[in-house]
Amino acid sequence: MAENDLNAEEYPTEIHEYLLGFEKSVDGVDKMLTKMMSVSRSELLQKLDPLEQAKLDLVSAYTLNSLFWVYLVTQGVNPKEHPVKDELERIRNYMNRVKEITDRKKAARLDKGAAKRFIKHALCDPTSEEGSPAKKECKSKSKKK
């Protein structure tokens, strides 16, 4: 739909900017879908690890259901009373689960051996002149030996 196709006489002028924004959004979706459809699904999935495959599947399902939601609105159907609402919620729950898994992978791991060495050297450094009372106590103990 080109700007020339939008005839201001066919609709109220106050929504003209909204319609132009909507047209740009639809064009963006069209470009993304064309790009995504240009590569075969099996070829795309071969390049991704299982977690990335799950993310791609969830985003695809969420996008299609969201577009169906918009379609229902354009047809005058209340999508909040349609099964698509439950499907979107189900997909959102799976997206949250994938996010939790991703966050767990990114979480810092504790190296217990290194932590013990840090604590030992932080609390008991007999050569240090300054430090906490624990260091001073440790230093006095080591001088008595």
TrEMBL record:
Q: Which family does it belong to?
A: Belongs to the C1D family.
Coiled coil start-end = 84-111
List every stretch annotated Disordered: 125-145
Its primary localisation, in coarse terms, equals cytoplasm
Q: The organism sits in which domain of life?
A: Eukaryota
The answer to whether the entry has keyword DNA-binding is yes
What lineage is on file?
Eukaryota, Metazoa, Chordata, Craniata, Vertebrata
Which controlled-vocabulary keywords does the entry list?
Coiled coil, Cytoplasm, DNA-binding, Nucleus, RNA-binding, rRNA processing
Q: Where are the compositionally biased (Basic and acidic residues) regions?
A: 132-145
Q: What does this protein do?
A: Plays a role in the recruitment of the exosome to pre-rRNA to mediate the 3'-5' end processing of the 5.8S rRNA.
What are the GO cellular component annotations? cytoplasm; exosome (RNase complex); nucleolus
Please give the start and end residues of each transmembrane region: none
Provide the assembly information.
Monomer and homodimer.
Keyword 4Fe-4S carried by entry:
no
Cellular location of this protein? Cytoplasm; Nucleus, Nucleolus
Q: Name one Pfam family in it.
A: Sas10_Utp3
Q: Which GO terms describe its biological process?
A: maturation of 5.8S rRNA; regulation of gene expression
* Protein name per Swiss-Prot or TrEMBL: Nuclear nucleic acid-binding protein C1D
InterPro entries per the record?
Answer: Exosome-assoc_fac/DNA_repair, Sas10/Utp3/C1D
Q: Name one GO molecular function term.
A: DNA binding
